[in-house]
Each structure stands twice: as structure tokens, then as C-alpha cells.
Amino acid sequence: MSETTLVHLLRHGEVHNPQGILYGRRDGFHLSDLGVKMATRIAESIGERDIVHMRTSPLERAQETAAPLAAVRGLTPEIDPRVIESTNKFEGISFGEGAMTLVKRPHLWRHLYNPFKPSWGEPYDEMAARMLAAVHDARDAARGHEAVIVSHQLPIWTLRLHAERKSFVHDPRNRQCTLCSLTTLHFTGDALTRVSYSEPAGDLIPTKDKNAPFSAGGAPDEKRP
């Protein structure tokens, strides 16, 4: 019988970001107190599972999210640049006004000409390819067991769309990938057989952030905690 392997894609917890900056790949953005609590919840929720391998984005918020679970499992997460946040031409801008941020800045509109690519950031197909390569390596490292990859909302969601053979073009408000959620890829041998989703820290997410609006065109990712 072929072995079953699970690869859990864990989105990081809430980030301290009072100015509403689209922080992207910038250094210096750490988990908030609530984010630390979310990461601890993950360790409590899945710490007893058969997790034998972990890898994480190089960004601080991802490594901090991985830390409690890694401690419980006695693992040292591998830093994997392939699961880092996507690039974004709006990085560093405060989106405290939501969609009005772009409406009031016509000079940014030139980046919105092609939502299919998307024109404002890393191409979806390239993002899915790098994430999938990391997933396959994690699957191979955890054969017959479970692995956890700590990454970011858009890369995780893009990979899920690819796995489910759906269009990459989407409304960011409809992404099923909340803070510290788990998108789990089920493998039988090398074959991906199922994708499942759970929110172990869902009750900790402030109501105002569960359906928080993104800016026009769905360009900015992770502008909120």
C-alpha cells in the first residue's frame, strides 16, 4: 500500500502593523501579541500530530509563527526562500484607507493593467511553481508522516488554486486562508489526492479583520495584520 503523507501549509499569525503598511517582503515586521497567541494555539492544536519536518519562509513573522510548534515537536525548521511572500509594486504603501488608497493615487494605476498575470507583482504561475517545488521537497522529507510549511496568504492561496485546477484570477476578499489557518495537501505516494482546510486559531481573529476589504484590483496582499 502506498504511504500517505500530509503537507500542511500554515499561514503566519497576526503582525504588529498599526499603520496598515503593505509590508510584503520587508524586514522588521513581527507578530503582535495576538499573533504570538495564535502561533501558540497552532502548537497546542497540532503539536501531537505526526509532524517530522518543518520549513518556513525567511521572513520574521513566519519564523516566529513556526517557533512554538517546532519547540513542541523538537524540530529545527528549514529556511526555504521558495515559500516567501510574493513581490508587490505597492510594497511600503499604507493602505489605511482601503480601496481609496489607489483611487487617490492615479500614478499607481499603471500597475493594474493586467489582473491575469498580475501586473502589480510576481506572476501567479511562477509563485505556484516555487511553492509546489517546496511542497514536493517537504513531502519527500516526511514520507509516510506529516510536514508543515509556514508561508503567506497569497502564495498559499495561489498554490491551492493550482492544486484544484482553478483560475488564478480571484477576488482577494474571497481567499480561504485566514491567519494561522492550515491548508493541507494529502498525498498518496507522489500523487496529490485531496486538499483540506482548517482554522485552529479562527476564534482569535478579530471580527473586523475576518472580511476586511482589500484595495481595487486585489493588488495588495497582507496590508492588514
From TrEMBL:
<protein>
    <submittedName>
        <fullName>Histidine phosphatase family protein</fullName>
    </submittedName>
</protein>
<dbReference type="InterPro" id="IPR029033">
    <property type="entry name" value="His_PPase_superfam"/>
</dbReference>
<dbReference type="InterPro" id="IPR013078">
    <property type="entry name" value="His_Pase_superF_clade-1"/>
</dbReference>
<feature type="region of interest" description="Disordered">
    <location>
        <begin position="202"/>
        <end position="225"/>
    </location>
</feature>
<dbReference type="Pfam" id="PF00300">
    <property type="entry name" value="His_Phos_1"/>
</dbReference>
<dbReference type="InterPro" id="IPR050275">
    <property type="entry name" value="PGM_Phosphatase"/>
</dbReference>
